[in-house]
Design goal:
The protein is of the alpha/beta class and 340 residues long. The protein contains eleven helices and six strands. It has a six-stranded parallel β-sheet. The radius of gyration is 18 Å and the shape is globular.
Length: 340
């Protein structure tokens, strides 16, 4: 069956989290299964990860982190609305709750983002190819505006818009994970306005909320891409991003962002993603070896799209599914809400 032409970017998140994670990510990159990485500059292995990126010429972006571990900016030296009394970020849900309550000072968010961008340049000697958000913090209300301003100021054009079509109907997701994924999509849809005003770009399609950890399979990835392509003309060429978290499980106390590795990182689910990405089944399902298949791409210039095309896709009536508001104009037991 004819379908739109798709160029797929496969981004491995959490580069720099721990040496074992990074070993698996580099393995996937060298196997051709991952095309870019997002670096946690406050990760325990950030420096060695940066060296790996340079050695293997891995396209590397910043995984902006406002929710896990310790900050790298001025917040580390005193009181901050971003931190707990113990000096750590507030956590995935804690940060969201603080933002919703109006307890987060957005100028402090801007300071931390700028500090992480500066740290990235120190580590890599260049600007990031893209900037996305650890645990999708970059699309939260208010934060998305500051995020877009910071990226424009430093000249970064590319980001991630975590809107996966039909994720609310993925019955294999636990109820908590499905609810979290749906909330991420709602936040991402609301972030379209600020991102567009500041000239940011992103792929036309995104996959990863329904395929995280134990839920990654060739069937689920190819199915998510198929949902993303519904109602798109067969002569249309577009880019898509698959968010992934491959790696070997962390072994405490090594890893993390200042607090040690979390349960998801220590579980078998990271290794499961690595195996799915690097075995032939997924490649065959995507048809990457076929002329009409889904080739991988890594260039940051291929990540974005024109504003007119983006608005056309956002206006499709089925884009967000029945559980979402209409588009704006123009081994261990991990957290069940873990889509990162």
């Amino acid at each position: 069956m004819a379908r739109p032409r798709v160029r797929l970017v496969v981004t491995a998140d959490d580069f720099g989290y721990c040496p074992r994670r990074d070993e698996g990510i580099v393995e996937a990159f060298l196997a051709g299964a991952v095309t870019s990485v997002s670096l946690l500059v406050n990760g325990a292995a950030a420096e060695s990860a940066a060296e790996l990126a340079r050695r293997h010429q891995i396209p590397t972006g910043l995984h902006a982190n406002l929710s896990e571990g310790r900050p790298v900016g001025p917040a580390r030296d005193g009181d901050s609305s971003l931190l707990s009394p113990e000096g750590f970020f507030l956590g995935k849900m804690g940060f969201r709750e603080a933002v919703a309550a109006g307890d987060v000072a957005l100028p402090q968010v801007r300071e931390e983002l700028e500090a992480q961008l500066s740290r990235f340049r120190e580590l890599l000697g260049r600007d990031p190819t893209h900037v996305d958000g650890h645990q999708h913090v970059h699309v939260l209300p208010g934060v998305c505006q500051v995020f877009a301003e910071a990226l424009q100021a430093c000249g970064v054009r590319f980001t991630r818009l975590p809107m996966e079509r039909g994720v609310g109907g993925c019955a294999w997701l636990e109820a908590a994970a499905r609810a979290f994924a749906s909330s991420v999509e709602r936040d991402a849809q609301a972030a379209v306005g600020p991102f567009s005003r500041y000239g940011l770009r992103w792929t036309e399609a995104f996959v990863g909320l329904s395929t995280c950890g134990r839920h990654m399979s060739a069937d689920h990835v190819s199915g998510a891409l198929a949902r993303a392509l519904e109602d798109i003309p067969t002569d249309y060429a577009l880019t898509a991003e698959l968010m992934a978290h491959p790696g070997y499980p962390s072994v405490p106390p090594a890893g993390g962002c200042g607090e040690g590795p979390d349960a998801f990182s220590c579980s078998w689910e990271r290794l499961h993603e690595l195996r799915v990405l690097t075995t032939p089944t997924l490649r065959a399902r995507l048809g990457q070896d076929e002329k009409a298949g889904t080739p991988l791409c890594a260039s940051s210039g291929e990540l974005g799209m024109g504003k007119r095309s983006r608005q056309k896709l956002l206006k499709r009536p089925k884009d967000l599914g029945p559980n979402h508001p209409p588009p704006l104009p123009g081994a261990q037991a991990p957290d069940p809400t873990h889509p990162r």
